[in-house]
């Protein structure tokens, strides 16, 4: 039974919906500590994040047990804080992944969870709340809720202004989201100002050629594309492609060396990985496929640039262990190289990677 039995609720306690904070009428029967105003929000939360964290919420939302000593109590408190930290990061990553996949509705409950866990751990005015506000702002923009997005961004700005220890990475995220807001409002001059600041602060935090800085270049390129300034857009798309290609190629070389060592020592197949979390992988797919669409619309002018993006996508999917997608893009790049009679060495390199993907797909993990 999911419906709340009123007499079972402690007197004076107000139960709120996890999604909208309206008075609750239902409870999750699996964890019994999460409440909803109705079936619609219960299903939305379950689909977004609750299914993944349901049982993890029980120790966070029930009273701490009685401990026999101060040492046990401190240990229990430390475990509770570790659970909070894990859920803050996990919910944030899940929400980010949804945003990069264009699933803005699904991102909202996960982002709200991240925000509430941050409030419980850091307080109501901590700068640690800002990343969650920005997720909610971006989700609102994706859903066309401009006013709501502005409210979340105002809260984030106010929190940053009151803080004395805001990091460059947080400033970067704030300006990126402000840039996206003004892009949605088609105020491209203001959007360019904020994205330039995003790139500056991201460069201070991570370096000018880091994948975490590339998002600012990408959104700035989108502005120039919308303004029909295709040469400027082309330059920035090229820069973004080069940043991701370098990261994935460097990672591929490290994996290749480790694979040889592991096969020699253990005789086992090496398992790939990108070195990225799920949200970063989703961001890479979103950015690179968007640039590919741009390249393919102008491939008659510079087919080698299309080849470059396709090759980067091959490496990405290969390292994500998505062999079917890696083969799909490898086939496309080989076809383009042959049709355009491009560099034979390039064709040989792609053919080698294609053969490696095919061989590993047929070889079971031992």
Please describe the structure with a list of short key phrases separated by commas or semicolons:
366 residues, 13 helices, 2 strands, globular
Molecular structure report:
With about 375 residues, the chain is mainly α. Helix content is about 70%, strand content about 0%. Strand 1 (about 25) and strand 2 (about 35) form a beta hairpin. The longest helix has about 35 residues, at about 230-265. It is globular and about 75 Å long.
Radius of gyration: 24 Å
Shape: globular
Can you count the helices?
Answer: 13
Spans of at least 5 consecutive residues with low confidence: 264-270
Layout of helices and strands:
Elements: E1 26-27, E2 35-36, H1 39-53, H2 70-100, H3 104-122, H4 130-142, H5 146-162, H6 168-184, H7 188-206, H8 211-226, H9 230-266, H10 278-297, H11 303-319, H12 323-340, H13 344-362
Antiparallel strand pairs: 1-2
Helix pairs in contact: 1-3, 2-3, 2-4, 2-10, 3-4, 4-5, 4-6, 5-6, 6-7, 6-8, 7-8, 8-9, 9-10, 9-11, 10-11, 11-12, 12-13
